[in-house]
Target: dTDP-glucose 4,6-dehydratase
Amino acid sequence: MRILVTGGAGFIGSNFIIYWLKKYPQDTIVNLDALTYAGNLENLKTIEKNPHYEFVHGNICDTQLVNKLASNTDTMVHFAAESHVDRSIIDAAPFIKTNVEGTYVLLEAARKNKILRFHHISTDEVFGALKLDSKEKFGDHTPYNPRSPYSASKAASDHIVRAYHTTYNLPITISNCSNNFGPFQFPEKFIPLAISNIIEGKKVPVYGDGLYVRDWLYVDDHCRAIDLILQKGEVGKTYLIGGLTEDISNIKIIKKILRIMGKDDNQIEYVKDRPGHDRRYAIDWSTIHKELGWSPNYNFDQALEETIDWYKHNSIWLKRIKSGTYTEYYQTQYGK
Ligand code: NAD
Ligand code: TDX
Model:
């Protein structure tokens, strides 16, 4: 396979490239990434000299470049996105540009160059929010109800991807997954932000009452699911991917992290809530389980400990990523 990965210098994309080249060393990966604040080539140090890997510094909105790359590709795996909800609340413009227009540019190139598979990485946030005390989960037939500029831009991209299948018969697949965590995640997201603040002796900001619930998926389990969809997934189909957590609240997660890191609850700081904060996410992943035999391997507590260990042992990675514009963003979001 010759795969064009977009956004491969980000969190999930870099984990995916490392996963793929280890498992399929004969395949070739071209990684197209604009290296926004979230893109970091250090994530790919272990494979940067692999002759089956090539990095292209560029934007998915660049039609000419994307067309050139697509002419020499059989499969596209599209991770590139603006991915942080809080940033989309501060400024939605880059979300519309990259997530909507960028996806359109890739689809056009895929169509013109008769790509064999376009796999689009999306999110459970397109479905909106579930009630806290319900047993309900997002499933194959849940209607879209995005509530933040981020999730609205991802929902728009999902619709365009599906339309290219219906209208032009483009061989697409989509996956909507829940909150990922693991190595190389940018410390603006909840779990790595908490770990990195604790390492620095700072308080951990918890939004609102802390009783918000996410469905947590270890990044390696996510990569395995994408692998199965590429190998055995049905063209035109959307797969939902989730983890093994059962309604664990943000505050419980922070308490776990504090305990693992030998700190007490005094390090928790309740801060003002995110506007339009989705209360609860939960994913019914029975379809991918039944049809492709996938289920998550990683138990949350164990994967969380491994993730904390990874951040502790990669303090230089963390320090470098937190220099530059990170401080500016942190102050805008959390104050001084
Ligand atoms: P990330 O923010 O860590 O990485 C995004 C990458 O895309 C970066 O390397 C960045 O440089 C690149 N990029 C951004 N704009 C670009 C552009 N215009 N052209 C080329 N490259 C560009 O994101 P992530 O957490 O790895 O998420 C990857 C994908 O998975 C996204 O599509 C996101 O919506 C989706 N997703 C993420 C999660 C999660 O929990 N992180 C959950 C569900 C879905
Ligand atoms: O400082 C914080 N304090 C806090 O309480 C941050 C950054 C987050 N939170 C809360 C908000 C959410 O309830 O933690 C939860 C998780 O927040 P994020 O890490 O920002 O993730 P979320 O908003 O749930 O979105 C994530 O999952 C779906 C990813 O960022 C998206 O890219 C993905 O699509």
In short: The chain is about 40% helix and 15% strand.
